[in-house]
Amino acid sequence: MDYMPIQLSEGKLMFEFPDGSTNEIDYVPRTASIIKAPLEHNAINTSNMDVIALEIEFKK
Fold it and tell me: Fewest CB atoms within 10 A around its CB: which of 4, 31, 38, 42?
């Protein structure tokens, strides 16, 4: 299912993907994006604060 994360706090996450690649993202409160499924990843908080987000999954 596709999903939409809505960032509720500041912070920085590093995403690790199955192919070994990584991507670091700075989060800004009150922003959102649409993520196409499937997206296998591991999110690691690299900031010194809690990263808070709400994820909405779209049913088909």
Answer: 38
The one-letter code for the residue type at 50 is D
Separation CA 25–CA 42 (nearest Å): 13
The tally of domains found in the chain comes to 1
Q: What pTM was computed for the model?
A: 0.79
d(CA 29, CA 37): 23
Which residue in 39, 20, 21, 17 sits closest to 55, CA to CA?
39
- As a whole number of angstroms, the longest Cα–Cα distance in the chain is 37
Contact between 23 and 46 (Cβ < 8 Å): no
pLDDT digits (tens, 9 = 90+) for 19-59: 999 999 999 999 999 999 888 999 999 999 999 999 999 98
Which residues form the domain of 20?
3-57
